[in-house]
Amino acid sequence: MRRTPIRALALATASLTLLAGTVTAVAGSASAAPKVPGADDYAPGMLSAMERDLGLSAESAVEVLTFQAAASDKQHDLAKTLGDAYAGAWVDTTEQALYVGVSDAAQAAAVEAAGATPILAENSLAELDAWKGALDSALDGRKAPQYYVDVESNSIVIDVARGSKGYVAAAVRNAGIPADAVTYTQTGVQPRTLINVIGGNAYYIGGSRCSVGFSATGGFVTAGHCGDVGNTTTSPTGTFQVSSFPGNDYAYVNTGSDDTPVGSVNNYSGGTVSVAGSTAAAVGATVCRSGSTTGWHCGTIQALNSSVTYSEGTVSGLIRTNVCAEPGDSGGSLLAGTQAQGMTSGGSGNCSSGGTTYFQPVNEALSAAGVSLITGGGGGGGTTCTGYASSFSGSLSSGGFTYKPSSSGVSAASGTIRGCLDGPSGVDFDLYLQKLSSGTWSTVAQGITSAPDETVTYSGTAGTYRWLVDSYSGSGSYTGGYTLP
């Protein structure tokens, strides 16, 4: 075995020493800014974002987050205790109060005993959720674009498009939902999707489909033959701002502010590959392509600076490969390891019999559009931490470590605990599960392979647990998730 749990225990001890040393150093220096206790438990930038968006100082932000973590534990415990009488919960962060709805007055004492404030409710959360589920198949989304269970009002709130209240009210009656369990509001807003822009995923131009090449500043690069300047896209929403074809075959699409360019490529095996840069590979190098028609296929570079003539004209300076592709894959990503190479242009053959495919070099497209390639954080080993009840993120320098969700841990019932870590390419990040016993943290499970990604599963007794994320070597951003019993 490469390492033992003793390393994790030593890290925990080192952490306490470092914190104490930091406090001592600050106390003795008149010019050093005081360190906010607990700030290191949260992802870089979170506290500054809370100050920017919510007007909270770092100290207040830590207090709010600490309160919310404790309230969340109480909320989940009470949901189990109250059973069918549970009517949802909400917090007031200003008062640091947890309110819990109960549809049975006899259960109020249990809420008070847990340190929360009971609110008598007409409908249980289970009833509201069931009625809301009935609306999913009963409502026309164009006439009721948004609806949700609002636990504070103990009702289903339906945002109704102008002129559609009669239709929506009839749908509510037909679904058997009590009229007093529904609150109507009028809206003129039609929601739209918020999309992560990821290489290899599909996007649409009118009745046509192409594939995202690579995320770049404010959007993505793709094939020029997919659209002309001024053409608009959907899923994600965007506009072609640069397009060159024939001669070249590149384009840049500027996406909406609600769409997030991500430095990764879909590997069509349930994960993504992080993009680390755009260093051009040599002839003979192994490369893999991602596209929305045929997914993930690999081959080798046969030539650089190739010219090919399509019916529309000749394109020069392309990468020639023996990787297969089919219509709809156009614009998709070509990678050599984690280095972006180019976007799918065209070729011959298919993915049943094989063929030759040409790619527009990515650096030429980035330069022409005046944008930069977006590189990734997590995703180095292909693991994506989805399907977990809670998530976390952050960044580490080589040799660094941190605790999630905090150094004080979180309560868990008896059962199976699952955890996942998704680190950047080229690093060795590890994940430890620690349990508090008699005031001492001990490692009870671990994922310590040489890969950037780890998963941990542990069956244990009730207690207080925390995750230790450790950079054995390498630096970068990570994401992760965990589920407690």
UniProtKB/TrEMBL annotation:
Residues 123-178 form the Peptidase S1A alpha-lytic prodomain domain. Residues 1-32 form the signal peptide. It holds the Pfam family Pro_Al_protease. InterPro entries: Pept_S1_alpha_lytic, Pept_S1A_streptogrisin, Peptidase_S1_PA, Peptidase_S1_PA_chymotrypsin, Streptogrisin_prodomain. GO terms for biological process: proteolysis. GO terms for molecular function: serine-type endopeptidase activity. Keywords: Disulfide bond, Hydrolase, Protease, Serine protease, Signal, Zymogen. GO terms for cellular component: extracellular region. Belongs to the peptidase S1 family. This is S1 family peptidase. It comes from Antribacter soli.
